[in-house]
Amino acid sequence: MIRLGIMGYGNLGRGVEVAVRDAVDMELVAVFTRRDPSSVQILTAGVPVVNVSEVADWKDKIDVMILCGGSATDLPEMTPEYAQMFNVVDSFDTHARIPEHFANVDAAAKSADKIAVISCGWDPGMFSIMRTYANAILPDGKDYTFWGKGVSQGHSDAIRRIDGVKNAKQYTVPVEASLEAVRNGENPTFTTRQMHTRECFVVLEDGADAARVEKEIKEMPNYFADYDTTVNFISEEEFNANHQGLAHGGYVFRSGKTGADKEHNHIIEYKLTLDSNPEFTTSVLVCVARAAYRMKAEGMTGCKTILDIPPAYFSDKSGEELRAHLL
Amino acid sequence: MIRLGIMGYGNLGRGVEVAVRDAVDMELVAVFTRRDPSSVQILTAGVPVVNVSEVADWKDKIDVMILCGGSATDLPEMTPEYAQMFNVVDSFDTHARIPEHFANVDAAAKSADKIAVISCGWDPGMFSIMRTYANAILPDGKDYTFWGKGVSQGHSDAIRRIDGVKNAKQYTVPVEASLEAVRNGENPTFTTRQMHTRECFVVLEDGADAARVEKEIKEMPNYFADYDTTVNFISEEEFNANHQGLAHGGYVFRSGKTGADKEHNHIIEYKLTLDSNPEFTTSVLVCVARAAYRMKAEGMTGCKTILDIPPAYFSDKSGEELRAHLL
């Protein structure tokens, strides 16, 4: 059995805990928290909740630690720190900072003879895998990534920072006609506006000026100005009843040409429709933990990404089983 | 530059030749044929066409040999034979015989300190990769593979063996309503008939009895009896004008549940829409040849499958480039 630890018990930590139940070759041995452990109630009977200050005592009791922190401030610190004690897996998703995060984690993991796999989930994660395969197979082609329909946390936060806004959710929605144009092999070039629309659901503070808030949202540079944005003002009751979901998803396409005269077009489409964004992410993290354990057992150390992992290492099945049933 | 050889110059051999043009890190050094080389005209100036009897002279001049034979009779012989001289890649696609083929090729490649990657293309191949990832990520779920719309060579051959048939093409077509049911998360259980229909285009010999031929097709066990089958009798002119295409494609789905009470459903869909079945297959083979070269350079030998290859090894880009741009 691969012995897993969970560092951090929010949406991701809970998702890992639940995903491990379906993994026949893994067991959860402890959940670590910055909070008072007696205040944290987990789902799994018999698994201790431990304050993070005691984590070093668990160095020899955990094969892989899954780091369930946020990308903005937690993981840039946590992953290099814990890679000095454990084999670790994280879901760091700030694309632009991946090279820097990789370098920090690689140095830490190598110095401790550990393996660390960063940026696992679906984007970065499964979408990255799809882009990599598809770019290699169809070098003469175009990539398209669409997200949604799903909540963008960053855009929701941006709305909440506007004066007079009590709460807000922003859904990113792919433009259906643009998906169809890609599927039809038209190899279109899109403006930002043509790929996604933004739907906002906003609860105002008492007495706030709706027209001003709507204008501020729609004109916000980077976040909304380049998009067709719809703003819906709703009551707090409606917000709480209808906008708590964690569904998300998206599409990775590559459309590319082959042939002596480039006369043949091919379209690769990968689509995710997810009822729970964090639970799908953690389902990937658990598979990557399995892979990290195997890669470490083979002698690998340092920082890796999901692109460095053979698909077979995601699976609990043997090579024989995979060849007989899934190949 | 990775030096490639092509063994066999039919649809697959030509596809490899064309795909190599887009690979900046590879060069084609020779094409091998069982025919008289002077009778074989290839597309690439300056590349020799060599009779297969002289292949041993090329042992030190080729890094990876791509074996472009058929699965029924060629590859079961060719792959073990040439794995004793070269690192090889094949597209062996008889699913039921993969374990046997693997064992034969593994013994041959290991004895010669070579690497061999078998069963690469799209099914087996990219579809296998998708099934493996998706089964690992969503262990509590169901798989669905749909093929088409595209020509089934085996079913076309079966029709041509009927007395009175001059020529025939059979298209496998997924049932649209069933695709939608899977996409809607209904997790349906399908009969064979509910997943695909079979459309046949048949040219009769002069004086053949159309009603008898249609009955024989529709009642043929395994091939057609379990499907809704449409038989269209057409002229040889129409056949030659409209039924020479090599388009194909298909879908791999997994629909699976997560959550403390399995309350969340997730749907992974991978869809290929291919203008040329052989050219997409050979585009994969060329990427796998790149991967085989790297894996051999790392000291791996024996038989591998596409499930054993990290996605990054498909690409000509460095780890740094992949992390910066595709992760």
Mean pLDDT of chain A: 97
H and E string of chain A: EHEEEHEHEHEEHEHHEHEHEEHEH
Shape label of chain A: globular
List unreliable stretches of 5+ residues of chain A: none
Question: Helix- and strand-based class of chain A?
Answer: alpha/beta
Q: What spatial order of strands do you see in the largest sheet of chain A? A: 3-2-1-4-5-6-14
Query: Biggest interface and its residues per chain?
Result: A-B, 68 and 68 residues
Query: Residue share in helices of chain A?
Result: 25-40%
Largest sheet of chain A: 7 strands, parallel
Record field, number of beta strands of chain A: 14
How would you name the oligomeric state of the polypeptide chains in this document? homodimer
Q: What proportion of the residues of chain A form beta strands (DSSP E)?
A: 25-35%
**Termini distance of chain A?**
25 Å
Please tally the helical runs of chain A, counting DSSP H or I stretches of 4 or more residues: 11
Q: Determine Rg of chain A (CA atoms, Å).
A: 22 Å
Summarize the structure.
2 copies of one chain form a homodimer. Chain A is an alpha/beta fold and 327 residues long.
What would your notes on this structure say?
2 copies of one chain form a homodimer. The model of chain A has no long low-confidence stretch (mean pLDDT 97). Chain A contains 11 helices and 14 strands. Chain A has a 7-stranded parallel β-sheet with strand order 3-2-1-4-5-6-14. Chain A has a 4-stranded mixed β-sheet with strand order 8-9-10-11. Chain A has 327 residues and is α/β, with parallel strands linked by helices. In chain A, helix 1 crosses helix 10 and helix 2 packs parallel to helix 3. At the A-B interface, helix 1, helix 3, helix 4, strand 13 and helix 10 of A face helix 1, helix 3, helix 4, strand 13 and helix 10 of B.
